[in-house]
């Protein structure tokens, strides 16, 4: 039983919401607060006090005996903004209770126990069915108790902080029809594709009966079905459509042509004549590749009439996932929430050591970090792709946007279609600098890298010249390094052939990093020796002006004339 104690009207209102949501689990203690807390402490396994933490500390301190037997105590503040796990975080279940209470009240759970502060993903948030002792195993993961992973299926999972020493708790990843034992959960990733064929008017029960017989005899679980698959001509066949609905999975359909191209063990003439492919069930199940676990079988009819449905079951190969994640220019609040989510999802992180340092605190415990120094780009790309091919969830990181002069291209040049790839955009240096400078990119603009390590200078020069002639705003990346001194002056000279010496130039070093600096100068006055590899240089077009110390490129030439 959870005892509920409040003192104020606001506290009572929050208390009543809890009491209404959990009528069986809670009991309201009224009367003077001190007495209410003492009585509830003696009678309940848990307390939720809608009181200040200080007040509750004073009231319960004399009552505390043993953390294994004391009730768990959660405090909720007057504004119901926080649910604080105060004592009995583990033994008393207060951490879990704080989360539940917070969820219900729309508050923030506050959990200060060391092992809980490091995020472990909820087993029920992985996006596929979980069976068994979810509460017990989750608690064990949170408490840092040894939990072992028994993965019959290689499937990309976020790091679950499992122990290789074995343990009393087990996480099993399988598509077999097994019952979870005590202290065990079974995770069921979507590994099975069921190919289905049916003649016109086949009853849904015949289709479902066939599928469930096929799975049962093969020792497989319906909880792992990813999708039903069939041929286009049967995509609207009610028995198949309803079977997918009842199983709660999507129905995908392929053209007869696509199916005819798939090698199958049991082709036949009947479907060839009817829909134009020698196999429906087997071919549809096998389109994406995988292992045929149940070859084509037909439904059985009690009345001895000819079978109206066929099915086949394939175990898909686990698809690894490669997330190419831009971290933004440096500041934590310019890292997008989506990038953060991908970093926390990853079981393997690949990146340059200085970028890994930038986000190390966001990684889940157990994440494998493969960091390397400058250079080694191709190797980083290869490593990331190779890890994804093993079925891992990989995050490949880069500063700014990972697709701009960065890792996305070498990685995708390596990747084949046997892995899923997602890109997460980041704030690239040109944009971070532009926001600092004012509005230099208000009209057409390009980025040009002045690094001639991988690109011949003639190519770079041709592009600078084209931008100069076309009066486009230019942002130079990699403008100048110790070994590359003459390229920036040369590039500026080319632009100066087409732009006034007073054309504004913005120089931003370490945008959004602690030692950020910036200035607006002109083509004539820019001193290239003040520029280094931490810097981007943005040169305005012929309409760009410095206004109140800010660099402003008008939206259009005519537009500005009109405004004057
Ligand atoms: N992918 C990165 C660019 C990598 S190329 C991005 O999208 O931003 C490296 C160059 O980017 C550096 O030489 C510098 O010119 C520029 N750069 C990257 N981060 C920067 C920052 N925070 N401030 C200024 N310039 C930066």
TrEMBL record:
EC number: 2.1.1.131, 3.7.1.12
Species this protein is from: Streptomyces pseudovenezuelae
Pathway the protein takes part in: Cofactor biosynthesis; adenosylcobalamin biosynthesis
Ranges of residues in domain Tetrapyrrole methylase: 321-525
UniProt entry tagged with the keyword Transit peptide: no
Keyword Plastid: no
GO biological process: methylation
Pfam families for this protein: CbiG_C, CbiG_N, TP_methylase
Residue ranges constituting the CobE/GbiG C-terminal domain according to the UniProt record: 192-313
CDD domains: Precorrin_3B_C17_MT (cd11646)
Keyword list, A-Z: Cobalamin biosynthesis, Hydrolase, Methyltransferase, S-adenosyl-L-methionine, Transferase
InterPro entries: 4pyrrol_Mease, 4pyrrol_Methylase_sf, 4pyrrole_Mease_sub1, 4pyrrole_Mease_sub2, CbiG_N, Cbl_synth_CobJ/CibH_dom, CobE/GbiG_C, CobE/GbiG_C_sf
Name of the featured protein: Cobalt-precorrin 5A hydrolase/precorrin-3B C17-methyltransferase
Span of domain Cobalamin synthesis G N-terminal: 36-116
GO terms of molecular function: cobalt-precorrin-5A acetaldehyde-lyase activity; precorrin-3B C17-methyltransferase activity
